[in-house]
Specification:
Elements (H helix, E strand, L loop, with lengths): L1 E2 L1 H10 L7 E4 L2 H11 L4 E5 L12 E4 L2 H11 L3 E2 L9 E2 L3 E4 L6 E10 L4 E7 L6 H7 L4 E6 L7 H10 L4 H21 L1 E11 L5 E3 L2 E5 L8 H4 L9 H8 L3 E4 L4 E5 L2 H13 L6 E4 L6 H12 L6 E8 L4 H15 L5 E7 L2 H9 L5 E4 L2 H15 L1
Parallel strand pairs: 15-17, 17-18, 18-19
Antiparallel strand pairs: 1-13, 2-7, 3-4, 3-7, 5-6, 8-9, 8-11, 9-10, 11-12, 11-13, 14-16
Helix pairs in contact: 2-3, 5-6, 8-10, 10-11, 11-12
């Protein structure tokens, strides 16, 4: 679960990390109050969206007086910000962070992510802050440093000191860097964070470290331990179809193709999308209905898929391990009949009672094409999608 920058900074502040003074606002009146509270002529206005690249897209502005502030707030609130991380539709700007500016001597990059390949939290640091870490990795991989954290010991001072020295830090800056790593490590464990990124981490004119920008992602599977953090989620920042799917315990991610996919199991869903691409098609979504593909879940899945008007065909790929394929076939038949679907539906069943399920579908009068072979089913789906264009 992603959260907004201002909430991420609240967590950092609670953990003893230094962040700029600021307030979140939702209209010009609140912005003026926040501006006057800073007691400075200049301030930074930052659009609160779940995307990076805000500065280049005009989502981060520096204003020098109250009238400039009002103009910028009116421009941003209610708009949709398009960055390199969003679709062309952009993301809605419903809140702004009015923040105190600071003098910047250096900009660093610091993050901590869950690396499943080593089953550890890995800290990543770079002397190239303020830019996308992907670009640094491409152009200057020698400027990226990392270390893995032992889950029992936590981040050790010698590890942080080693990274700090690699970044060229000295004196008070190095000492603060070691303390910051320790605080962030504790924060990650306390809140079950899967990702924490401070970019840039700035060194001010006096050598102190300030977390100027921060992105945090919380492990969805651990939210039951943090009911207070559930309210941090902003549904307006996500695709509405994904929000609806989440309410029905369906895993859905919108893509830009024209073949709707409904699959049980994340691994099989990934393989299904890969095979569609291999056959020359393009998936419109990732959708995992889970192990219990009941009539109700299948119906909701169809509704979500069909809310994308670009979908020309639906490819249903079910492996019956625990569940029976004949019962799933009945659920698919009932859902299609109830909804009166007219676009072609290709159904591939494999596993427990698959032959019985396929027979039921093939004998129906609905526009359902049943197929037991995975590759053949994908080829049929791609062919139908091409004809429907």
């Amino acid at each position: 679960m992603n959260i907004h920058e201002y909430l991420a900074k609240d967590l950092l502040r609670q953990g003893g990390c230094t962040v700029p003074q600021g307030d979140v606002v939702r209209n010009a009146e609140e912005a003026i109050v926040a501006y006057e509270r800073l007691e400075e002529s200049r301030c930074v206005v930052k659009a609160q969206v779940y995307a990076g690249g805000r500065g280049k897209a005009g989502g981060v502005r520096i204003v020098s007086n109250k009238q400039e502030l009002i103009d910028v707030v009116k421009q941003l609130i209610g708009s949709r910000l398009v960055t390199y991380q969003t679709t062309q539709a952009g993301q809605p700007v419903n809140a702004l962070l009015i923040e105190q500016p600071c003098t910047i001597k250096r900009e660093l990059y610091l993050s901590a992510v869950l690396d499943r390949s080593v089953q550890r939290i890995v800290f990543i640091g770079s002397s190239e802050g303020g830019v996308e870490i992907e670009e640094v990795a491409k152009k200057s991989p020698d400027k990226i440093f990392r270390f893995a954290v032992d889950p029992l010991m936590g981040a050790m001072p010698f590890q942080a000191r080693g990274m700090g020295l690699s970044l060229g830090l000295k004196g008070i800056t190095l000492r603060e860097f070691v303390k910051l790593i320790t605080k962030l490590s504790q924060l990650i464990i306390k809140h079950d964070l899967s990702m924490l990124e401070v970019n840039p981490l700035v060194v001010d004119s006096e050598g102190h470290l300030i977390c100027l920008d921060c992105k945090i992602a919380i492990d969805d599977n651990a939210l039951f331990r943090h009911p207070n953090l559930r309210d941090y989620y902003d549904q307006s920042q996500e695709d509405e179809r994904e929000n609806i799917a989440r309410s029905h315990e369906l895993n859905y991610i919108a893509l830009d193709g024209n073949i709707g996919c409904m699959v049980n199991g994340a691994g099989l869903a990934m393989a299904t999308m890969d095979l569609i691409k291999l056959c020359g098609g393009s998936p419109a979504n990732f959708l995992d209905v889970g192990g219990g593909a009941t009539k109700e879940r299948v119906t909701e899945a169809f509704k979500i898929i069909l809310s994308d008007t670009t979908v020309k065909v639906i490819f249903v790929n079910i492996f019956g391990g625990i569940v029976r394929c004949d019962l799933i076939a009945e659920g698919i038949y009932a859902a299609v009949a109830e909804m009166g679907l007219t676009i072609p539906i290709v159904v591939r069943l494999e596993g427990n009672n698959a032959s019985t399920g396929l027979k039921k579908l093939s004998e129906s009068s609905l526009n359902i094409i049943s197929e037991s072979d995975f590759e053949k089913a994908a080829q049929v789906a791609v062919s139908l999608a091409e004809k429907g264009e």
